[in-house]
Amino acid sequence: MMRRFLLFILLPGLSVLLAGCGYNDIQRLDEQVKTAWSQTLNQYERRAELVPKLVNSVNAYMVNERAVLTQVTEARSKVGSIQISAKDLENPELMERFNQAQGQLSSALSRLIAVSENYPQLKSDGLFRDLMTQLEGTENRIATERGRYVQAVQEYNLIVRQFPTLITAKIFGYHTMENYGVSKQDQITKDPEVKFSLPTN
Question: What confidence tens digit (pLDDT) does each residue in 60-101 have?
Fold first, then answer.
């Protein structure tokens, strides 16, 4: 009976203390980072799903460009082999492999787009144009979501470094997060170079 009474008295006080020392803010910002990264992953997955359709649409036209198609297919396969989630943000090796694989896929797609400029019939193909529009939109969404993720990590890192919330962060084991992509922040927030000059009717 006494234990219940003490819990009844202490729990509200503890809640007020935790709220006042930034615990709730740390929790909220931690979730915000994970949500932003999950949204980024969704867009990367969307891009990966477009790649096989894109390769199939250009396959009949690009008979002399097998090396480029192989590079795109292999880069897509490498991306698909790396399983990652918001829980993996604290695994720098896995995140580095993921970022490298995504970079290789971006490079391979850029080469494919550059080569496809040499095929007027391909550029006039309706399916190809539709896929390119989807790809461009997805690249824009990736850039947007990566920008939001970078911002979320900056906000989180700021609060776990500030006084008095840094004390709460240390007590509960929260530490600053690696801001994957911050070294390329200018590129992330820029429109991607997935632009097409389609023939005019």
Answer: 888 788 899 999 999 999 999 999 998 899 899 999 999 999
- Whose CA is closest to 110, among 199, 195, 198, 197? 195
Q: Quick one: which of 164, 136, 173 has its CA closest to 30?
A: 173
Grouping H, G, I as helix, E, B as strand and the rest as coil, residue 32 is helix
In the chain, count H helices and then E strands. Answer: 8, 0
One-character DSSP codes across 66-129: HHHHHHHHHHHHHHHH----GGGGG-HHHHHHHHHHHHHHHHHHHHHHHHHTT-HHHHT-HHHH
Query: What are the extents of the domains in the chain?
Result: 44-188
User: 16: part of which helix (H) or strand (E)?
Assistant: helix 2-20
> Which of 145, 134, 147, 127 is CA-nearest to residue 194?
134
Average pLDDT over residues 9-20: 50
Q: Position of tokens 């962060």?
A: 169
Q: What is the pTM of this model?
A: 0.77
